[in-house]
Write a structure and sequence with these properties.
- The radius of gyration is 22 Å and the shape is globular.
- It is α/β, with parallel strands linked by helices.
- The N terminus is likely disordered.
- The protein contains 17 helices and 15 strands.
- The strands form two sheets. It has a nine-stranded mixed sheet.
- Helix 4 packs parallel to helix 5, helix 5 packs antiparallel against helix 16 and helix 6 packs across helix 11.
- It starts with a helix and ends in a 16-residue tail after the last helix.
């Protein structure tokens, strides 16, 4: 085990001393910490919690000299062993608490199912680790607030996994809006991929050897194992569409375009909408029980209207009020944030940047004085901010706000009620039923006070 005390002392006196290098097309030995190009005392050591489909981002810590992935954790034995070999990680764990307990790990990269995001993040914060957490943030508004306490109480660096903030074209598109190039923003439309119906809790199968299924369930209700619930071999269907573990695509994919809206709203000091009215389709049969299709209208305190839809609903005639030719230009965008002003419009998506006119698009390179934080690579931004002790491009505070919008959409659909949000008290008002859904029960002995 490395000399943690001397390394931390070094970091306290040398924050920001080393500049991060760019992305190498071939990973040199020095990037993996093998030739001492960066002193061990000045390197950030990371542990990856979760080795499933989205875990590939964790290997990026090995692609820069200033960080190194040294430990992995997953309740699936063959998965953690495979990733440890692929990533040259020295330490392998089944239980995240064992990984967090290591005092030579500075930060954790959380890539678990949604229902584990906040409980693990809180435990990591209490253990003095900085946190990169995949989206969506939480499975309840209560958990959003608990996550926010990470920064406020434990003084942790927290990078939210909305990597689109590190994509240049997205930042440039929002800067066009911030600098007034579409005039006054009148409406915002956000859409994301639709959910799914189906799935089966049968046949009930024996838990595969090497899979700690009880730990995978963790704070979620006890449930029999089936392939559609959480197969460790195939696509994680239940992880995306079973309400015990997630709120579905409203948060799972909606978090990306909603985050782009929130990036703009934070700069404009808008907070989040105060009125919500949503309709949607909940599967009536099968295992999957998250919202499949939805349409939500919201209004900010200043009267600005925001619309949140799934991609199938957004494709229906008249749902996105653009001329047919303009709407066709956005056909490839299955997730999108569309800002509509009185002088033009800007649409940003992972798939590209589209504007109402070519002239407007050309202004993106030099939009004006109002600029957003520039980040070229999400994990690199995280490492840099750990060293400098400043919050990264995808802040926890912004994540909490955008996640609450997704939850209020889901709650409005499930209750069939229009909702009002009290921004000062941070709670739903006017409906005790809806207010009660701001929390989720957790299976004993798990709670939001997990410690190592």
């Amino acid at each position: 085990m490395k000399n943690k005390q001397s390394r931390r002392q070094f970091l306290k006196t040398s924050l920001g001393a080393s500049a991060l290098i760019g992305f190498p097309t071939v990973i040199p030995a020095s990037a993996l910490g093998k030739d001492g190009a960066v002193a061990p005392s000045n390197r950030i050591y990371v542990g990856a919690i979760g080795c499933g489909r989205r875990s590939g981002v964790a290997n990026e810590y090995n692609m820069v000299k200033e960080s190194q992935l040294i430990a992995v954790c997953d309740p699936v034995k063959w998965r953690r062993e495979e990733k440890a070999k692929e990533w040259n990680a020295e330490h392998i764990y089944n239980d995240f608490r064992d990984l967090i307990a290591r005092d030579d790990i500075d930060a954790v990269h959380i890539v678990t199912p949604d229902h584990w995001h906040v409980p693990i993040a809180l435990a990591a914060a209490r253990a003095g680790k900085d946190i990169y957490c995949e989206k969506p943030l939480a499975i309840s508004i209560e958990q959003d607030f608990a996550a926010r306490a990470i920064v406020e109480k434990y003084d942790r660096i927290f990078q939210y996994g909305t990597q689109q903030r590190s994509m240049q074209h997205l930042r440039m598109g929002i800067e066009l809006v911030l600098n007034g190039h579409i005039g006054e923003v009148k409406d915002v439309y956000v859409w994301a991929p639709s959910g799914a119906k189906g799935g089966s809790a049968t046949p009930v199968l024996p838990v595969p050897e090497g899979f700690d299924y009880d730990l995978w369930l963790g704070p979620a209700p006890e449930a029999p194992f089936s392939e559609d619930r959480c197969s460790p071999h195939g696509p994680p269907k239940g992880t995306y569409f079973v309400y015990d573990y997630t709120i579905g695509m409203i948060g799972g994919w909606g978090s990306h375009p909603m985050d782009q809206l929130q990036w703009w709203a934070d700069y404009e000091d808008l907070g989040i909408p105060e009125e919500y009215s949503a309709t949607g389709t909940l599967p009536s049969t099968g295992l999957f029980n998250t919202v499949a299709n939805w349409e939500m209208q919201a209004k900010y305190a200043n009267g600005l209207k925001m619309h949140f839809l799934d991609s199938i609903t957004a494709d229906k005639p008249g749902k996105i009020p653009l001329p047919a030719a303009d709407r066709k230009r956005l056909e490839k965008f299955k997730n999108c944030t569309l800002f509509m002003g009185d002088e033009g419009w800007v649409a940003v998506s992972r798939a590209g940047l589209v504007t109402s006119t070519p002239e407007l698009r050309r202004k993106a390179k030099d939009p004006g004085d109002h600029r957003l934080v520039e980040s070229k690579w999400h994990p690199v931004d995280f490492v840099k901010c750990i060293k400098e002790r400043k919050q990264p491009v995808s802040t926890l505070e912004s994540a909490v706000r955008s996640d609450i919008i997704c939850h209020l959409t889901d709650i409005s659909i499930r209750t069939g009620e229009s909702l009002k949000w009290d921004a000062a008290k941070e709670t739903i008002i006017g409906s005790e039923k809806a207010k009660g859904m701001m929390k989720r029960p957790m299976r004993a002995p798990y709670n939001l006070d997990i410690r190592v």
